[in-house]
Amino acid sequence: MMLVLVARGACAAEVVPSVHSPTADTTTQSWLDKRMCVWQARLKLESWAIRVVVCDSVDLRPNTLGNIHWDAENKTAIIRLLNSSTAAMERTLVHELVHLELAALPKTDGTRMDEEKAVSHMADALLALDPQSEPRVTSSGLLRNPQ
Ligand SMILES: [Zn+2]
Question: Which residues surround ligand 1, an ion (CB under 5 A)?
Answer without folding.
Answer: 116
